[in-house]
Write a structure and sequence with these properties.
Blueprint (H helix, E strand, L loop, with lengths): L1 H16 L5 E8 L3 E8 L4 E9 L3 E11 L5 E8 L5
Antiparallel strand pairs: 1-2, 2-3, 3-4, 4-5
Length: 86
C-alpha cells in the first residue's frame, strides 16, 4: 500500500508540470526483496525511489522527486516510509 501511495505522489509531480517532456534517463531494478527506480525528464522533473523488504511484510522505502513550479520555484520532496508511516 505504501509503495502505491509513493508512486502516486511521483506521478502527481509529473502531472503537475502539465507539459510534454522526453525521458533523459530512466532505470529500474525490481527483485523479490528490494527495488529501485528513477527517471529524469527534459522538463526538469526528476524522481528516485528505493526500498527493501524487512521481515515478511514490512517495506522500508525512501525516495525523492523534484520539479520546477509554474512560478519558476524549484521544489524537492524527500520522503521515507517505514513501519511508523511517512
Amino acid at each position: 500500500m505504501k509503495f502505491a501511495i509513493v508512486l502516486l505522489a511521483c506521478l502527481l509531480a509529473v502531472a503537475y508540470a502539465n507539459e510534454e517532456a522526453d525521458v533523459v534517463k530512466e532505470f529500474s531494478e525490481v527483485n523479490k526483496e528490494d527495488f529501485k527506480y528513477g527517471y529524469e525528464l527534459t522538463n526538469k522533473i526528476r524522481a528516485f525511489q528505493e526500498g527493501h523488504l524487512e521481515g515478511e511484510k514490512l517495506w522500508l522505502v525512501k525516495g525523492e522527486y523534484e520539479f520546477v513550479s509554474k512560478e519558476g520555484k524549484h521544489i524537492k520532496v524527500t520522503y521515507t516510509a517505514d513501519d511508523y508511516g511517512y
